[in-house]
Amino acid sequence: MQLIIDTDVGVDDAQAIMLALTHPGLTVEAITAVSGNTTLDNVVRNIFTVLDVMQAADIPVYRGAECPLLPDLWERDPNVHGGDGLGDLPDRPPTHREVEAEPAAVALVRLANESPGELTLIALGPLTNIALACRLDPDFPQKIKQFVFMGGTISAFGNTRIVTAEFNVHCDPEAAYIVLDAFPQSVMLSWETTMQHAFPWEQYDALAAIPTAAGRFFRDTSRTTRALLQRYPQVPGYLLPDPLAMAILLDPDLIQASSQHYVTVELNGRSTRGQTVIDYLGLHGREPNVEIITGLDTGGVYAMFERALS
Ligand code: BDR
Ligand code: CA
Q1: N or C: which end of the chain has fewer CB within 10 A?
Q2: What integer pLDDT is reported at residue 193 of this predicted model?
């Protein structure tokens, strides 16, 4: 598999990247950075830190969008992933890595043209870069072998102050609208599926105790999100939004339930802007454009984490 990761690292983005870097038979061709969980500068720095901790070979990293397509309608919440996006990580290793000069959306289009039909793309943050690539080259989606994204809600149970919207779509609803409209087929890992597939806290503690550089990085970066999650009685354990999306991409055998539907995004609702709208009954008469994942094997995901942190 030749994979491109578009990301707003992000504690759980970092974990998802770790799963990809340690998965056999896979090459990470590029990582594209987008603003979301933290500023674009922090995202790029965080990508380098993950690559350094994992002692990864050089992987081209591209700077993408610094803000959503319509920036004035959104505010970042600095409390979720810490001020730096990695749980206020102390003592980062110095890095030799440098960001590429080419903008992320231009690189996405170029890479897709160089290897049409070969590249798998996963989006772990707001869809701004992917939307820009779709606008730069309307044939971009057709040149991507498979597109997976973490984002959206499937029953209006969200995680933002627009309570029906999930964070990545909430950050840039126009981008999500453009991407869902442009890609003939996407795979969606929603917020509700995330809530239903947590690691029990004992499993989280076992991973956080793995005595390796990767294990300590996992423990140190996840302290902030762990404390936040434990404040909500509705949250059943340690949540894994981006790692679940990565896991079902890396090993589709982990998928236990999914269904195909037409999905778009609400752009105007006063209380629902950024909510994904799903035509469960086929009432629009539009072809399904999204495979919605609703069930997966968390035991298999845990085994991936053990391998990545060991
Ligand atoms: C998504 O929002 C971000 O906080 C996470 O990194 C994940 O991509 C979950 O709603
Ligand atoms: Ca993310």
Answers
A1: C
A2: 98
Ligand 1 pocket, mutate which of 77, 242, 246 (most atoms under 8 A from CB): 242
Residue type, position 30, single letter: A
Q: Which pLDDT tens digit goes with each residue over 54-70?
A: 999 999 999 999 999 99
**pLDDT: which is higher, 93 or 129:** 129
The number of beta carbons lying within 10 Å of the beta carbon of residue 93 is: 10
Indicate if ligand 1 lies below 6 Å from the C-beta of 15.
Answer: no
pLDDT at 75 over 80: no
Residue in this structure with the two tokens 């989280």, named with its chain if needed: 204
Q: Domain spanning 2-309: which superfamily?
A: Ribonucleoside hydrolase-like (3.90.245.10)
Does 6 contact ligand 1 (Cβ within 6 A)? no
Q: Which atom of ligand 1 is nearest to the CA of 80?
A: 4
CA 179 to chain centre: 14
Res 78 pLDDT > 70? no
Task: Please compute Rg for the chain using Cα positions.
Answer: 18
What ligand 1 atom has the least distance to the C-alpha of 194?
9
CA torsion sign for 13, 16, 22, 23 is: negative
Omega into 300 within 30° of 0, i.e. cis? no
Q: Percentage of the chain with pLDDT > 70?
A: 100
**Residues having C-beta closer than 5 Å to ion ligand 2:** 8, 10, 13, 124-125, 242
For ligand 1, is residue 149 a contact (CB within 6 Å)? Answer: no
Give the CA count within 13 Å in the CB-facing half-sphere of 7. 33
Pocket of ligand 1 contains residue 168 by CB under 6 Å: yes
Q: Which residues pair with 7 in a beta bridge?
A: 33
Beta partners for 62? Answer: 32
Determine contact, residues 194/166, Cβ cutoff 8 Å: no
Domain ranges of the chain: 2-309
Q: Whose CA is nearest to atom 2 of ligand 1?
A: 167
Task: Write out the two tokens for 88.
Answer: 């206020």
